[in-house]
Prior knowledge:
Layout: E1 2-6, H1 21-37, E2 47-48, H2 49-54, H3 59-68, E3 71-75, E4 78-81, E5 92-96, H4 98-119, H5 122-136, H6 174-182, H7 185-192, H8 200-212, H9 222-235, H10 245-250, E6 266-268, E7 274-276, H11 277-283, H12 295-306, H13 311-327
Antiparallel strand pairs: 1-5, 2-4, 3-4, 6-7
Amino acid sequence: MTWFMIDDGIYDAPQCEELPLSAIGLWAMAGSYVGRQLRHGDYDGAITMQRVRKLGGSPKLARQLVDAGLWRETEPGVFEIVAANPDGTMLCKYAATKELQEKRARAGRAGGKASGRSRRSKNEANASADSEANAKQTGKQKRSTLTYTYTHTDITSPNPSTPTPEPEPERTTMAELEAKMLEDPFETAWNAYPRHTGSKTEAEKAWNLVVQGVAGRPPADPRQLIGSVIAYAKTVDEPKYAPNMSRWLRQGAYTDTMPSQPKPYRHALPDGTVIDDRWITSHIRDHVPVGTFTDSMRTDFWACVKTGIDPEQKAKEIINECQRKAQR
């Protein structure tokens, strides 16, 4: 097993100040992937654009990592992890477990020196040569590429019989995530759009016109519009060829990737009461802070009502949840 180890100063490293969490996530996932592939002697540490997508990333996120200095583009669409800053401080490194080290040692003893050399990857040999050369050239800037050397690191606790329990990580619900996105819908869409050239002010003006409804088009729901931007970004392989966001909006191109509107709700109770969107508005939306009642809550409410749960009681639960969320 190979461990991808991240320096504890990464959270406030200058490279990460402007990076979205999604880019940091891609960086960590790619580091894990590279660590796994280093088991194979012929792997050179390359991360292709195809692998970026399989890890849940996008060309835009890859470009952000390159611009931030966490990745280096070795050739078009191929990247490698940058492990060190120019001053030599490490951002991350790889360490093999004791078992993997022993396995490699046994393989080397069994095959002799010649076979042992053949098992080493070209990348490891080059990395070692670079390290020796850099050690001799004092005063020169240290090489910042990731060197794939393996060291054993004891990752067990001081007393394995009584390990220190790790705190439960905080989980963000879909409802909370949606509410966060809707705090500033345009900013969310701007960050998701694949190209940031052109005027942001003009893009925001175009956004507001689309939300209001222009050129004979109906007003666009901000949530649906954000979904359209995200869907469009996934189709763009080369962000430099994407139009400016203001033009994309004014030309109505957002309609090509606009997700379908949620189906209207309507359910009749045995006493004749009709539960629909107007009922939801008067019993829930009008009683909670703006942006806290999300589509996922609406879907959950509808599912509960259809299974026979009292809509009044469910509405009270949702109102309480929205109010708690607004107070956080």
